[in-house]
Amino acid sequence: GGTVEVTGSYGGLDATVDVDLNAVGPVDASDPRLRVALVEEYDETLPAPGSNGETEFHWTVRRMLPDHDGSAVSLSEGDTPSYQFNTTLDPAWADTDLHVVAWLQDDDTREVIQSATSAQPAAFAAAFYAERFGAITPTGEVSRLDSWIENTGSQPDTYDFVMTASLPGSWGVSACAGTLCYPPWITTFSVTLNPGESLLIAIDVTPDTLAEGGPINMTATSQGDPGIVLSRDFAALAPGSDVLFVDADGGFAYETYFTDALTGAGASYQTWDRAALGHLTAADLSGFGAVVWNAEMIAPALIEDDRTALSGFLAQQGDLLLSGQDIAFDMADPLSPNHTAETQEWYEHHTGASFGADDSNDTGLVGVSGDPVGNGLLFNIAGGSGANNQGYPDVIVPAANARAVLEYSPGQAAAVRYLLNGAHIVTLGFGFEGIDTA
């Protein structure tokens, strides 16, 4: 953890920006970069510059310093580096509502570690955030979902909380504010914070049945400005189903192709929405015999948290189906913007496959004769009742101790199966949702 302080000074059309970093704790980032932007708080342009008729523009990014790539940062606990940037302003936006925004970001995960702005805070403002919005907890055990409310305004404020839960059976749920925990029947409470002060808001959940629990909604309303309403949805899952389906496609609506297939196969399953609930751990995954992970077209396909969780799960001999076009390209092709030696090594070690080509230019797939997975399969990944979204299905190459499951044409693998220390893994070079028939 740490702080960022930023100032901007202007003389005519000359601007100087100073950014001071202070690493007061360990910095958990594999590729930290400092990005700095000059932003204009408000601009009215007449006539409308675009076809949509908009004439008013708020918080417009005018310039990145030194550019959009930012500045590489070497930062350890206790370091206090300073950075200065100089630029010449465009007369069209060199006025009094020009501000600086600076943020420290891990380019590997895209996580923003810390940020600051030279703009003065509003009288009443707040942030309500969490590292994860979901938990997987065995039945009969208490799971805690942690979040924080922060007063980001310039005045003290009181926030009124309301918790509502839709849970199966007799699951237990209760709320905590700081060190004060309420009984289950207390679902409304208030907290008062000074400017810059934050407070832990926790939800304790105790599952008693094998099911998905949620949503659990927590909403905070500012007394200083009742127009400020912050609402967050949380979820809890009890492990034990045959399959955990991880919906990690970044928000596309492809999940029903997977869940319908699981239902048709007679498998019990639960769903984890990666974008909504946050990262998973190996311990989370270990509660399920198999994981179906959909990373369709998301980039990066698997961030470090995902790779760590899957590595631990596979080390415990869990089984994995990994689906998504461009996963191999994203992780294992040096031409990919997200490729590193680490991502390529992870992909090849854990899938038994290597990157062959970014686009098979072929949508007709045939199962490999005699293969325990692919034998007898014949389908297209375009048209029909599928998602019809396969623009760049990867060709993947099985390692010597792996086997092709599906092929575009003889010798051009579309899917590979692999046995890794007892873990069964099937990796698709395409997105499962593209299959043209149910």
Describe the protein in words:
By secondary structure, this protein is mostly beta strands. The chain is built from six helices and 29 strands. The protein has helices at about 255-265, 275, 280-285, 305-315, 325-330, 340-350; strands spanning about 5-10, 15-20, 30-45, 55-65, 70, 80-90, 100-105, 110-115, 125-130, 135, 145-150, 155-165, 170-175, 180, 190-195, 200-205, 210-220, 230-235, 245, 270-275, 290-295, 320-325, 355, 365, 380, 395-400, 405-410, 410-420, 425-430. The longest helix has 12 residues, at about 305-315. The chain starts with a strand and ends in a 10-residue tail after the last strand.
Question: What's the gist of this structure?
Answer:
With 438 residues, the protein is mostly beta strands.
List the helices and strands and how they pair.
Layout: E1 3-11, E2 14-22, E3 32-44, E4 56-65, E5 71-72, E6 82-88, E7 98-106, E8 112-117, E9 126-129, E10 134-136, E11 143-151, E12 157-165, E13 172-177, E14 180-181, E15 188-193, E16 198-206, E17 212-222, E18 229-237, E19 243-247, H1 255-264, E20 269-273, H2 274-277, H3 282-285, E21 290-294, H4 304-315, E22 319-323, H5 327-332, H6 341-351, E23 353-357, E24 364-367, E25 378-380, E26 395-398, E27 403-409, E28 412-420, E29 423-428
Parallel strand pairs: 10-18, 19-20, 19-21, 21-22, 22-29
Antiparallel strand pairs: 1-2, 2-6, 3-4, 3-5, 3-7, 7-8, 9-11, 11-16, 12-15, 12-17, 13-14, 13-16, 17-18, 23-26, 24-25, 24-27, 27-28, 28-29
